[in-house]
Amino acid sequence: MTGAVRTAQGLAVRGGVARGVTVTLPEETPVALVYNGSTQAVMMASPQDIEDFALGFSLSEGVIADPAEIDSLEVVAHDAGIEARMWLADDRAEALAARRRAMTGPVGCGLCGIDSLDAALRPLPRLDGGPLRFTAAEIDAAGTALTGRQPLHDRTRAVHAAGFLRPGTGLVTAREDVGRHNALDKLIGALARAEEDSATGAIVVTSRLSLDMVQKCVMAGAPVLIGVSAPTAHALRLAEDAGLTLVAQARGQGFDLYTHPDRILTGAESHVA
After folding, report:
1. Whole-angstrom Cα distance, residue 273 to residue 259?
2. Partners of 76 in the beta sheet?
């Protein structure tokens, strides 16, 4: 299977002076997600943690509701890319056939190939309020903790990451990918394979908080989404409707708290509507 990185030669030009450099670049390869012999999606992704990616994508896109609904999963490498071949339980295979859609798209696009506006704005479950609580200090440290769990980014400076933060424990799991959606799917898959309950913690991401990142987080059942960048207006509306706590600009020097603030113990009364 393709390695995660490769080296390349280039020229670094600084102050009118050029010098030869050797750089480390992340690999990206086409990954086909194949269900019962039919390709559902082809995504450009980093070639590691493909089992996690396949399972996480299946869960976050609603192909399955439970990992047990995948009867088997096989990763097959080809010269042209990688296939993640999955065989679904009969009822899930029938449901998928009924809602078949093309989703082939480049890195960075989470809604590529959706065949209708209704499909882009799919209905989401409402997250349970539950007892989950984080301190402000835990949220403030989340972005820095995720930075420390990104070995591929340390080598290349060109990939995204997603991690899982548990109250009182810290960051317990992280995954990386050239695509921000793929990193999140890999994390969701890793949590499912480890039988970790997403409802017991928060998802932390290195990207902006867009509508599709909110959708995937809610589908995974995680009540809190923390990002180092800002949300879009639509993502904020969706998070409010779905019962998701949305935390932005979490870079170790405070953070912005938008929706359902009761899960974060800020030490002061919140005035968020």
Report:
1. 8
2. 83
DSSP 8-state secondary structure symbol assigned to residue 39: E
- Model confidence over 52-84: pLDDT tens digits? 999 999 999 999 999 999 999 999 999 999 999
Beta bridge partners of residue 14, listed in sequence order: 17
Dist. CA 125–CA 99, nearest whole Å: 18
Active site residue 109: yes
At 268 the pLDDT is 60
C-alpha separations of 246 from 73, 164, 177, 236, 273 in Å: 33, 15, 22, 7, 13
Nearest to 30 by CA among 111, 103, 115: 103
Confidence of residue 271 (pLDDT cuts 50, 70, 90): very low
User: How far is residue 99 from each of residues 103, 166, 220, measured CA to CA in Å?
Assistant: 12, 35, 20
Residue corresponding to tokens 């086909």: 32
Ordered by where they begin, the domains of the chain are 29-120 (3.10.20.10), 134-265 (3.40.140.10)
- Is the CB of residue 174 less than 8 Å from the CB of residue 163? yes
DSSP E strand stretches across the chain = 5-14, 17-26, 29-35, 38-45, 70-78, 81-88, 134-135, 160-166, 170-177, 202-205, 224-227, 245-248, 256-259, 264-265
Q: What are the pLDDT digits (tens) for 23-41?
A: 999 999 999 999 999 999 9
Number of H helices, E strands in the chain: 8, 14
Q: Could you give the CA distance from residue 96 to residue 125 in angstroms, rounded to a whole number? A: 19
145: left (phi over 0), alpha (psi -120 to 50) or beta: alpha
pTM reported for the whole predicted model: 0.91
Q: Annotated catalytic residue: which of 107, 109, 158, 199?
A: 109
Rounded CA separation 65/83 (Å): 22
